[in-house]
Amino acid sequence: MGVAGRGRLDCRVVAGRVRVVATSAYPLKIIAPQAAQTGPQAQPGEQAQRALHPAAAYVLTYGGGLVHGDRIRVDVHAGAQVALVLLTQGSTKVYRASASGGVRAVDAAQEAAGQTYQTIEITAGPGALVCVLPDPVTCFAAARYSQRQRVRMGAGASLVLLDWMTSGRMSRGERWRFSKYFSANVVCDAAGRIAVRDAMLLEDGGALEPAAAVDALAYLLLLGPAAAPVAAAFRRAHRAHRIRPHRPDPAAVKWSVSEVAERGLAGVAVRAAAASTAALRAWLVDYLAPLQAAIGDAAWSMFANA
User: Fold this and answer.
1) How many domains does one find in the chain?
2) Is 19 within a domain?
3) Which parts of the chain span the membrane according to its record (predicted)?
4) What pLDDT score was predicted for residue 240?
5) What is the DSSP letter of 56?
6) What are the tens digits of pLDDT across the range 111-162?
7) Which one of 22, 65, 100, 143 has the fewest CB atoms closer than 10 angstroms to its CB?
8) Does residue 248 fall inside a structural domain?
């Protein structure tokens, strides 16, 4: 039996087909449905994307959430020319910390013991595309949660990494009531040199409640040639948004774009905020639609129709 909460996912092309090997230990579960490419024949500009071999996997926990003290770690390898989509099934719920865990820690050991962790380590082989497209994280009142995602990019690899969260169980009147939310994303080149490092820390979430117009936050990172069409669409829309006068729309998604060019990796980082999870999801699906040509109809449907 493996270590509790540990999982491995290996996807590689063997004899022209994707071979997926997944192992996991309770409370973690990894499911890899069929994600073969279907749809109309590629246009000339899509040939590079269609050379990829699609694969998809759901990273789940029994019960649909993380309880206080859970330690989840998933090691992922996407081999050369694999287009791997990592998904979840519904929002990742983080349940409240125990009474002792909710007390502010006085040293590192207490801090580590008083929260829930999730770590994903990804290796993208040469020419691979990895799309990390989970549903958002939803922290319950008094929850303490930390997640870390680290990606090593092979030559010519591409990455679409979505990291997003909601304000909490809004239907229960819980908005920004968690105790701690920490998320870090690190991307390295093939030699292990850091190209992108981004982190967000929110503590004592109740302090955010006055921002009543915001119930969902997202960070989207787009790197490499297979993600270039989506990155270009964001650049065009951002330029148009800055040039044309407009009236503020309270219901609209607020967003910004930053260029990324480091260690031979290029693309954009997008930050977005919205008044509802549904509005932000629809906005993301709209902008990410060009990915369908790379990841295939089946994998795209798993994300877009979640």
Assistant:
1) 1
2) yes
3) 216-234
4) 86
5) E
6) 555 689 999 999 999 999 999 999 999 999 999 999 999 999 999 999 999 9
7) 100
8) yes
Q: Is 241 helix (H, G, I), strand (E, B) or coil?
A: helix
What are the backbone angles phi and psi of residue 226, rounded to the nearest 5°? -70, -20
Distance of CA 196 to the CA centre of its chain: 15
Where residue 127 falls (left for φ over 0; alpha for ψ -120 to 50; beta otherwise) is left
Whole-angstrom Cα distance, residue 240 to residue 245? 9
Q: How far is CA 93 from the centre of its chain?
A: 15
Number of H helices, E strands in the chain: 6, 18
Helical ranges in the chain per DSSP H: 47-50, 108-113, 228-243, 277-288, 292-295, 297-304
Radius of gyration of the chain (CA): 19
The order of strands in the sheet holding 144-153 is: 17-24, 6-14, 71-78, 116-124, 144-153, 180-188, 194-203
Q: What angle do CA 250, 184, 221 make, to 5 degrees?
A: 60
- 97, 179 contact by CB (below 8 A): yes
In-domain check, residue 1: no
| Dihedral, CA of residue 221, residue 134, residue 36 and residue 61, to nearest 10 | 140
Dihedral angle over CA of 222, 75, 193, 146, nearest 10: 80
Domain with 201 in it: 6-304
Q: At what angle do helices 228-243 and 277-288 cross, to 10 degrees?
A: 120
